[in-house]
């Protein structure tokens, strides 16, 4: 596998794991089979012109887009099986981490990986437990002879999603602990960021919590970052597509599109909140 670190803003970085070609002798896991089956079913439902399947897909895609991109990134990292652990510990081939040298100093890359692997660990464990608690409650809905038990299947999916994200984070922690990563600055990735037209959306205050500030390059020097203590976007949707083309990773496009949309939305909401607060402050001064 190969890991990519792609800054979305000056405070946030997308993690993506590319699954390299597996040996022909390697058997497909039941998880991979189930995931493929679900993807094919979902695709078939998307082709429907109308009906409940089409509505389920429409609402489902709306909900899926709002799952944090950090969770999707960790889910892209395969769980650490005993076989994979033994292979990686042998050290025959280290896992490559691709990153833009112009935005992420080498000394910071491992810290970003560690933060991405650990900051949501407790959240995924907690949400996984709540999904298991909710599953039995939704089982009676399956007695209705109209549509499948969608609440139950949603909780099953979210439980799987949280488990995969948790397992992906544990895999990265294992790689960091055992020094099984090799860091590769990418001129291709740097060229995409360099070609990004300015200015991009920004906000005077970061949209992350103070303990999450390691997830990007907080202070990018230059006029393209008008709020060095706040947060500035580093990619837009057009350059996100250029990134996937430059890396020849079409499967990365949906991940980047989702991440850019989520961070842009957060930046815009932050700007609106600050403007509203300033407006209220100005009105209060006038009335005094």
UniProtKB/TrEMBL annotation:
Sorted UniProt keywords: Membrane, Transmembrane, Transmembrane helix
Domain of life the protein comes from: Eukaryota
Record's keyword annotation contains Membrane: yes
Basic and acidic residues composition-biased segments: 270-288
Database matches in InterPro entries: Mit_KHE1
Transmembrane segments: 128-147
Region of interest called Disordered, as start-end residue ranges on this chain: 197-230, 269-288
Signal peptide (UniProt feature, chain positions): none
Keyword Transmembrane helix attached: yes
Biased composition (Low complexity): 197-210
Name listed for the protein in its UniProt record: Mitochondrial K+-H+ exchange-related-domain-containing protein
């Amino acid at each position: 596998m190969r890991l990519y670190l792609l800054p979305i803003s000056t405070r946030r970085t997308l993690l993506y794991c590319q699954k390299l070609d597996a040996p022909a002798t390697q058997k497909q896991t039941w998880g991979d089979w189930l995931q493929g089956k679900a993807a094919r079913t979902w695709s078939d439902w998307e082709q429907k012109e109308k009906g409940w399947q089409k509505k389920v897909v429409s609402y489902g895609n709306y909900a899926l887009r709002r799952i944090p991109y950090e969770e999707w990134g960790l889910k892209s990292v395969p769980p650490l099986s005993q076989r994979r652990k033994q292979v990686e510990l042998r050290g025959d081939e280290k896992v490559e981490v691709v990153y833009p040298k112009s935005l992420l100093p080498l000394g910071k890359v491992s810290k970003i990986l560690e933060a991405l692997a650990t900051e949501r660990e407790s959240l995924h464990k907690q949400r996984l437990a709540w999904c298991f608690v909710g599953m039995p409650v939704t089982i009676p809905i399956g007695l209705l002879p109209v549509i499948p038990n969608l609440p139950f299947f949603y909780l099953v999916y979210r439980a799987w999603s949280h488990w995969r994200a948790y397992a992906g984070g544990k895999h990265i922690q294992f790689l960091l602990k055992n020094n099984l990563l090799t860091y590769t600055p990418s001129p291709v990735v740097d060229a995409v960021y360099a070609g990004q037209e300015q200015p991009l959306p920004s906000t005077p205050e970061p949209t992350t919590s103070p303990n999450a500030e390691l997830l990007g390059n907080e202070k990018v020097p230059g006029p393209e970052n008008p709020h060095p203590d706040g947060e500035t976007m580093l990619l837009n949707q057009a350059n996100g597509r250029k990134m996937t083309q430059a890396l020849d990773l079409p499967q990365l496009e949906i991940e980047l599109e989702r991440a850019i949309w989520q961070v842009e939305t957060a930046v815009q909401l932050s700007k609106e909140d600050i403007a509203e607060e300033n407006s209220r402050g100005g009105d209060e001064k006038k009335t005094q």
